[in-house]
Write a structure and sequence with these properties.
This protein is mainly β. The chain has no helices and eleven strands.
Length: 119
């Protein structure tokens, strides 16, 4: 059974960089053909895909967030990390990490972590 757990600060100040880590257990981030994604949901809005890192380490980003988003991984810790720069209150959301087969079939999700951007 694969489990994902998000961690990171729940409060970030405007203009700072949001950094979240997803720790994976029961599976490896290097296993084909899985992609490890970050997805968020802002209040009153639907799910927004932010980006992903593949089993081989390639990264993919939403065009709308590409300039502010970076996803990396630490294979020794079986973790992958999201960094979102220059945050504003509009980045307040519940952030999820998830696994997807070929970026299509999402089968495992973390429980989500609330991040609030406020001074």
């Amino acid at each position: 059974q694969v489990q994902l757990q998000e961690s990171g600060p729940g409060l970030v100040k405007p203009s700072q960089t949001l950094s979240l880590t997803c720790t994976v257990s029961g599976g490896s981030t290097t296993t084909t053909p899985y992609y490890w994604s970050w997805i968020r949901q802002s209040p009153g809005k639907g799910l927004e895909w932010m980006g992903a890192i593949s089993y081989s380490g390639n990264t993919y980003y939403s065009p709308s967030l590409n300039s502010r988003t970076s996803i990396s991984r630490d294979t020794s810790k079986n973790q992958f990390t999201l960094q979102l720069s220059s945050v504003t209150p509009e980045d307040t959301a519940v952030y999820y990490c998830a696994r997807a087969e070929n970026l299509v079939k999402y089968d495992y999700w973390g429980q989500g972590t609330q991040v609030t951007v406020s001074s």
